[in-house]
C-alpha cells in the first residue's frame, strides 16, 4: 500500500479527498466499496445539502448548490465494486475577497503552519484547510452509510448539536431523531435550548466574533466485534476521524472525562442476556470495550472550537515577520456547529464501514 500523504482515510473502505476552497471543484475517490449497493446521486445530495453553506443566517452566506456528479463506480443504480469518483463543482468562488490576507497570517488559522510545511499556501479562503474540503468526506459518508444499512443492519446514525458556548441541550441521545435535529436552525433537538443558541450566535455574529460547541453522535445497530484490540481500537479510529475535521479539538466516547469522577463499581457496565443476546445494563463504555464494539449504542462527542476567522481586530504578523493588526473579512460561519453535524455523521459512518469490511476479512 502506498504511504498516505494526509488526504487518505481508511484501510479497506478507503477514501481520498481533493480540492481547495476556491478551486474549480472538490470531491472524493472511494476505493473498496462493495458491489451491488444501491446508490444514486440523490442519496449523496441529501447529505451535502445539510452540509452546504448559505442554509440560514447562522452559516456562511456563500451560495453553493453542492450538486454531486458520480463519474465512475456506479452502473444502473448499483455500485460496481470499482473506484467511485464523486465531483462537486464550485459555483460561488470569490478569491479576490481574500487578497488582503495574502501576506498576513490569520490567528489560529492554518496559514502559518501550511507555509511552514510546504513553503507555499493557497490564501484564497484557506485553500485545503477550508471546511469546503469536507464535501468529499460527507459524500463518501453517504456511501458508507448505505453499505452499513444494507450489509450490517445499521438501525440509526444521528448526530446533533448538544452544546453551543455555555448552552446545553437537555435530551436523551438515544431518543433523538433526525427529524427533530433538522427542525431547528442550530440542529439542536432541544427547541428551548436551540432558541437560546440562535440568540447567542446572532449576538456573536453582530459583534464580529464566533462561538464553539459540541456535537454528539449516536450509532445504533452496530454489530459486536468491530475494531482491533491494540492500535486500531474502534474508539481510537473514531477519535482520529473526528479530530481530523476542521476546527475539531476534542473527543469523548461514553462517559468520557466525566467517567474519571466515578469509582470502578459505579462505572462498570454489568452484563445480562436478553433474547439470547449479551447486553449491558448501562452504557458508560459508549458501545466499545477493549477497542471492540459490543453491540450497544456507540455514543461519541466531538468538540469544535470557535471559528478562527472573525471580524474583530487581532494582533498578528506578516509573512515577512512584521507585527500588524488584522480584522478579517470574507464569508465564514459565526459558529461551525450546525454544519458540523453531517460531517460528524460522515466520519463515524466511514470508520464503522471500514471496520465492518476489516472484520469480514478475518471472520
Low-pLDDT stretches are: none
Overall form: globular
Separation of termini?
22 Å
Number of helices: 8
CATH architecture: 4-Layer Sandwich
How much of the sequence lies in strands comes to 15-25%
Q: List the domain count as a whole number.
A: 1
Strand order of the largest sheet: 1-2-3-7-4
Compute the gyration radius: what is it? 21 Å
Please state the structural category: alpha+beta
Give the CATH level 1 class: Alpha Beta
Please provide the count of β strands: 18
Short description:
It contains eight helices and 18 strands. The protein is an alpha+beta fold.
Structure description:
This protein is α+β, with helices and mostly antiparallel strands and 363 residues long. It has a single domain (8-362), classed as Chorismate synthase, AroC fold, CATH 3.60.150.10. The chain is built from eight helices and 18 strands. A five-stranded antiparallel beta sheet has the order 1-2-3-7-4, covered by helices on one side. A hairpin with a 2-residue loop joins strand 8 and strand 9. Helix 1 crosses helix 8 (337-362). It is globular and about 65 Å long.
What are the salient characteristics of this protein?
single chain; 363 residues; alpha+beta; Chorismate synthase, AroC fold; five-stranded antiparallel β-sheet; 8 helices; 27% helix
Topology readout:
Blueprint: E1 8-9, E2 14-18, E3 25-31, H1 41-51, E4 68-72, E5 74-75, E6 78-79, E7 84-89, H2 111-118, H3 134-151, E8 156-164, E9 167-168, H4 178-182, H5 191-206, E10 213-220, H6 234-243, E11 248-253, H7 264-267, E12 271-274, E13 277-280, E14 288-289, E15 292-293, E16 298-304, E17 314-317, E18 323-326, H8 337-362
Antiparallel strand pairs: 1-2, 2-3, 3-7, 4-7, 5-6, 8-9, 8-10, 10-16, 11-16, 12-13, 14-15, 17-18
Amino acid at each position: 500500500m502506498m504511504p498516505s500523504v494526509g488526504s487518505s482515510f481508511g484501510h479497506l473502505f478507503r477514501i481520498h479527498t481533493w480540492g481547495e476552497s476556491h478551486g474549480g471543484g472538490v470531491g472524493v475517490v472511494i476505493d473498496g466499496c462493495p458491489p451491488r449497493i444501491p446508490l444514486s446521486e440523490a442519496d449523496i445530495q441529501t447529505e451535502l445539502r445539510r452540509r452546504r453553506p448559505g442554509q440560514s443566517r447562522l452559516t456562511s452566506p456563500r451560495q453553493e448548490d453542492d450538486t454531486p456528479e458520480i463519474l465512475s463506480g456506479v452502473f444502473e443504480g448499483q455500485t460496481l465494486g470499482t473506484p467511485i469518483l464523486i465531483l462537486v463543482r464550485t459555483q460561488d468562488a470569490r478569491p479576490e475577497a481574500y487578497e488582503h490576507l495574502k501576506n498576513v497570517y490569520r490567528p489560529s488559522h492554518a496559514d502559518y503552519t501550511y507555509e511552514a510545511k510546504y513553503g507555499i499556501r493557497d490564501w484564497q479562503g484557506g485553500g485545503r484547510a477550508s471546511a469546503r474540503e469536507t464535501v468529499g468526506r460527507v459524500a463518501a459518508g453517504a456511501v458508507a452509510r448505505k453499505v452499513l444499512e444494507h450489509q450490517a443492519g445499521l438501525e440509526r446514525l444521528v448526530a446533533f448539536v448538544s452544546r453551543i458556548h455555555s448552552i446545553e441541550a437537555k435530551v436523551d441521545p438515544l431518543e433523538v431523531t433526525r427529524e427533530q435535529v433538522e427542525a431547528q436552525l442550530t440542529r439542536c433537538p432541544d427547541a428551548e435550548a436551540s432558541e437560546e443558541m440562535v440568540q447567542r450566535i446572532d449576538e456573536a455574529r453582530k459583534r464580529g466574533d464566533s462561538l464553539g460547541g459540541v456535537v454528539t453522535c449516536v450509532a445504533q445497530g452496530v454489530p459486536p466485534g468491530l475494531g482491533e484490540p491494540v492500535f486500531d481500537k474502534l474508539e481510537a479510529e473514531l477519535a482520529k476521524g473526528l479530530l481530523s475535521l476542521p476546527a475539531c479539538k476534542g473527543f469523548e466516547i461514553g462517559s468520557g472525562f466525566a467517567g474519571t469522577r466515578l469509582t470502578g463499581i459505579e462505572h462498570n457496565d454489568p452484563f445480562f442476556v436478553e433474547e439470547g443476546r449479551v447486553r449491558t445494563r448501562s452504557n458508560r463504555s459508549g458501545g466499545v470495550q477493549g477497542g471492540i464494539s459490543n453491540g450497544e449504542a456507540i455514543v461519541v462527542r466531538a468538540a469544535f472550537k470557535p471559528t478562527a476567522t472573525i471580524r474583530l481586530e487581532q494582533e498578528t504578523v506578516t509573512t515577512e515577520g512584521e507585527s500588524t493588526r488584522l480584522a478579517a473579512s470574507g464569508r465564514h460561519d459565526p459558529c461551525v456547529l450546525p454544519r458540523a453535524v453531517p460531517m460528524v455523521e460522515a466520519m463515524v459512518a466511514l470508520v464503522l464501514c471500514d471496520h465492518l469490511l476489516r472484520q469480514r476479512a478475518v471472520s
